[in-house]
């Protein structure tokens, strides 16, 4: 089982293949946002990788980051990443202080849209 370390929260075992956005809410209990329901249309599920950033990304994530002008190194969309290795992240987009009424809609178990993989 991969280990997910969330800065200022703790370290958690996560089922292999689980979406990072789900692990952040289910296992780690964070208030990570995911306003679009985890389909790479917004950037509210942003995390900053401290260690273990995946080398690959979905085409959808790459395009969303480009369109939204998110260019900081290590900042990724948790809805487009599966937990298949140990990683350490910092949650940078949280419900607390956002003014939103909730974290976002339900997130499918599989990455949406269907992933086409590329390099970052």
General description of the model:
With 120 residues, the protein is of the alpha+beta class. The protein contains two helices and seven strands. The chain starts with a strand and ends with a strand. It is 13% helix and 23% strand. It has one domain (3-96, 112-119): Beta-grasp domain (Ubiquitin-like (UB roll)), CATH 3.10.20. A five-stranded mixed beta sheet has the order 2-1-6-3-5, with helices on one face. The longest helix is centred in the middle third of the chain and has 9 residues, at 59-67. A hairpin with a 3-residue loop joins strand 1 and strand 2 (10-13). The chain has helices spanning 20-26, 59-67; strands spanning 3-6, 10-13, 46-51, 56-58, 75-77, 87-91, 117-119.
Provide keyphrases for this structure.
120 residues, alpha+beta, Ubiquitin-like (UB roll), five-stranded mixed sheet, two-stranded antiparallel sheet, 2 helices, 23% strand, globular
Short description:
The protein is α+β, with helices and mostly antiparallel strands and 120 residues long. Helix content is 13%, strand content 23%.
């Amino acid at each position: 089982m991969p280990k997910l370390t969330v800065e200022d929260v703790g370290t958690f075992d996560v089922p292999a293949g689980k979406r990072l956005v789900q692990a952040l809410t289910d296992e780690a209990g964070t208030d990570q946002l995911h306003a679009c329901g985890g389909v790479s249309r917004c950037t509210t599920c942003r995390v900053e990788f401290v260690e273990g950033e995946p080398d690959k990304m979905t085409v959808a994530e790459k395009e969303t980051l480009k369109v939204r002008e998110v260019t900081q190194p290590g900042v990724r969309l948790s809805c487009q990443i599966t937990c298949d290795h140990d990683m350490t992240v910092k949650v940078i987009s949280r419900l607390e202080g956002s003014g939103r009424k909730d974290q976002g809609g339900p997130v499918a178990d599989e990455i949406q849209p269907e992933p086409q993989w590329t390099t970052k």
